[in-house]
Amino acid sequence: MTRPVMVIVGPPASGKTTVGTAVAAARGLPFRDTDRDVEDGTGTTVADLFVQHGEPHFRALEERAVARALAEHDGVLALGGGAVTSAASRELLVAYGKAGGTVVWLDVDVASAAKRVGLSRDRPLLAVNPRAMLRTMLEQRAPLYAAVATHPVTTAGRSPEEVVAEVLAVLTPEEEAR
What we know:
Elements lengths: L5 E4 L6 H12 L3 E3 H9 L3 H8 L1 H18 L3 E3 L8 H12 L4 E5 L2 H8 L12 H19 L2 E4 L5 H11 L2 H5 L1
Parallel strand pairs: 1-3, 1-4, 2-3, 4-5
């Protein structure tokens, strides 16, 4: 059965892509991002999908992308920040973790996330008042990330290299051998 060596979850600006690509490169593994999968499958950006079709449409596409990637990918997998809002995706992640999979939650504080996001137009849910939206999002989603994570990793006030080193240390010898 194919399954990811590691799944990375966390809110926007927590470092999922940065950390995921670095971990994958360090271990000679492929990297996959479900937001990119949705974009490739639709031919448009996540931000444009939100504007043109609404969040529920995007979340349905994201849920399918998560299920497909969990079944097909054998490297490091990063999920979109809101993927954990889907009960079906959470069930898949919990089952993956119970079967011995590694789900890393990159936890970030509001100040660090706000600094990283800046005025990015690529994050549709943060377009109006980024700091307030981030605070609300982090509070609402923290229990969801915690429910699926096998390893929480704090990113606030840490360099990407420090976070990557901690995430690499999470991999078991069996996972590294795959």
